[in-house]
C-alpha cells in the first residue's frame, strides 16, 4: 500500500466538514435576511392588530382612530404635514448639531481632567434633572415664540447623553496605558487624540442614537408650547378641533423621522467604528472544532 495516500476515512471527514461549513454559512445568511425582515413584519402585525381591535370593539375615531383613518388623514392633509414636519426636522437637526459640537468638546474636557469631572458633574446632573418643559416658558420670554425656543430645547435635552458618554469613554482609559505612553514621551494631548478619542467613539455613537430621538422630543415639546409652525404646533391645532386622526398622523410622521435619523446614526457608526462591533458578526457563525 503506497505511503502517500491519505487514510480511508479522511476524505469523507473533510467533505463532512465542508458541508457543515456551507450549512452554517447558509444559516447565517437566512438569519441576516430574517433580521432585515423582522422589524417590518412586527410593524405590519402591530398595525393589523390595531385595525382589527378598533373595528371589533367599535372604538370611536375621536378616542382611538384606526390605522386606515390615520392613513386617510395623512393623504388629506399631506401638505401641512410635510411642511410642518420639515420645520420640526430642521429645528431638531440644528439643536442636535449644536449638542454634538458642545457635548463632544465638554465631554473631552471633563473626561481628561479629574478636577472638571468632579467639579462640573453635579451641575450637569442637576441641570439635566430639571424638566425641560419648565424651561420653555423662560425661553419664550427671552427669545419669543418661534423656532429659537425649539432649537434650544432640542439642544438642552440631547446635550447631556453626549457629554456623559464621551467623558466616560475618555476617563476609562487604563492608567497602565497612560503610564506607558507617558514613559514613551507622549503628551496629554497626544494620549487624548490617539487613544482617548478612538476609545470614546463607541460611547459617542451610542449617545448619538439616544440623543437624536430625544432631540425630537425637545423640539415637539417646545412647539406645543410656543411655536407657530411644526409638528407639535399642528398636533395642538388638530387636538383643539378634535381631529384625532391628524394628531396620530403627526405622531406617525415624528416616529418615522426618528427612525430614519437613528438608522443614519447606525450607518455612520458601522462605517467609522466597525472594529468595535466586529464581535457581533462573529456570533452568527459558530466555529468548527477541527475543521
Automatic annotation (TrEMBL):
Signal sequence region: none
Transmembrane domains' residue ranges: 37-57, 85-108, 120-145, 151-173, 203-226, 246-268
Keyword hit for Membrane: yes
Span of domain ABC transmembrane type-1: 85-265
Bilayer topology term: Multi-pass membrane protein
InterPro entries: MetI-like, MetI-like_sf
Compartment annotation: Cell membrane
Keywords, comma-separated and alphabetical: Cell membrane, Membrane, Transmembrane, Transmembrane helix, Transport
A UniProt-annotated Pfam family: BPD_transp_1
Primary location class: membrane
Family the UniProt entry places it in: Belongs to the binding-protein-dependent transport system permease family.
Protein name: ABC transporter permease
Protein's organism: Roseomonas marmotae
Amino acid at each position: 500500500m503506497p505511503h502517500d495516500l491519505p487514510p480511508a476515512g479522511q476524505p469523507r471527514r473533510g467533505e463532512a466538514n465542508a458541508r457543515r461549513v456551507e450549512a452554517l454559512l447558509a444559516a447565517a445568511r437566512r438569519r441576516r435576511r430574517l433580521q432585515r425582515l423582522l422589524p417590518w413584519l412586527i410593524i405590519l402585525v402591530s398595525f393589523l392588530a390595531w385595525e382589527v381591535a378598533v373595528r371589533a370593539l367599535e372604538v370611536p375615531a375621536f378616542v382611538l382612530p384606526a390605522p386606515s383613518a390615520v392613513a386617510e388623514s395623512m393623504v388629506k392633509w399631506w401638505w401641512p404635514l410635510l411642511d410642518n414636519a420639515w420645520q420640526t426636522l430642521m429645528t431638531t437637526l440644528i439643536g442636535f448639531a449644536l449638542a454634538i459640537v458642545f457635548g463632544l468638546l465638554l465631554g473631552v474636557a471633563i473626561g481628561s481632567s479629574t478636577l472638571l469631572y468632579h467639579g462640573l458633574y453635579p451641575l450637569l446632573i442637576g441641570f439635566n434633572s430639571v424638566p425641560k418643559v419648565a424651561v420653555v416658558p423662560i425661553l419664550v420670554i427671552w427669545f419669543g415664540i418661534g423656532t429659537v425656543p425649539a432649537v434650544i430645547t432640542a439642544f438642552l435635552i440631547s446635550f447631556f447623553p453626549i457629554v456623559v458618554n464621551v467623558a466616560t469613554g475618555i476617563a476609562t482609559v487604563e492608567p497602565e496605558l497612560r503610564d506607558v505612553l507617558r514613559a514613551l514621551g507622549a503628551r496629554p494631548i497626544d494620549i487624548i487624540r490617539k487613544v482617548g478619542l478612538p476609545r470614546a467613539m463607541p460611547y459617542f455613537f451610542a449617545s448619538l442614537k439616544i440623543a437624536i430621538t430625544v432631540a425630537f422630543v425637545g423640539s415637539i415639546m417646545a412647539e406645543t408650547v410656543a411655536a407657530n409652525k411644526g409638528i407639535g404646533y399642528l398636533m395642538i391645532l388638530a387636538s383643539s378641533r378634535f381631529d384625532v386622526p391628524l394628531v396620530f398622523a403627526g405622531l406617525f410622521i415624528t416616529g418615522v423621522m426618528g427612525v430614519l435619523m437613528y438608522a443614519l446614526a447606525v450607518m455612520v457608526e458601522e462605517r467609522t467604528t466597525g472594529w468595535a462591533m466586529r464581535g457581533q458578526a462573529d456570533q452568527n457563525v459558530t466555529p468548527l472544532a477541527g475543521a
